[in-house]
Amino acid sequence: MMSSFASSWSGELDTRGLMGDPEVRTYFQKVEITAEVKTNETDERIRQLQETTDRRCPLFNTIKAADVEIVTTWTKAA
Q: What's this model's pTM, rounded to 2 decimal places?
């Protein structure tokens, strides 16, 4: 059973694209997602939850479709 879930998202953005530089995309260059799950489930079940969440999350998939590098870190809270 999961008793809590917390996530944070951060991104790296080259502002030259926002300022009109045609050589720089106006997307994030990289997005980092950290998630902490408080649960008594196994690490394998947490990995399955991550895969399901990644597949179903509209924000994750919008960023992925823009070909932005995504780094995810899921941990089990103590």
A: 0.85
